[in-house]
Amino acid sequence: MHTPSDIKARLLSIPQAVAYSNESRATLYKERKAGNIKFVKMGGSTRIEFDELNRYIDTKMCAAA
Predict the structure, then answer these.
(1) By the 8 A CB rule, do 9 and 16 touch?
(2) How far is CA 9 from CA 16, 17, 35, 45, 51, in A?
(3) Which pLDDT score is estimated for 34?
């Protein structure tokens, strides 16, 4: 049986996404406005899908190489 700590979150809050990506909140919102990353609205909360954030990070890493 899985415990809550075993489950990987599919959606990250903005503070979680900032911590995970090491990008600033302002940068994530700028990238959203530019169409480089998609956010999800869940009720009154803004979230970023874990896979979408990884795709964005991978794209940034490829561009820097």
Answers:
(1) yes
(2) 10, 11, 23, 15, 10
(3) 97
Determine phi and psi for 40, rounding to 5 degrees.
-120, 135
pLDDT tens per residue across span 8-61: 788 999 999 999 999 999 999 999 999 999 999 989 999 999 999 999 999 998
- Map residue 47 onto helix, strand or coil: strand
pTM (2 decimals)?
A: 0.82
Contacts of 40 (CB under 8 A, 6+ apart): 11, 46, 47, 48, 49
Residue count (the chain): 65
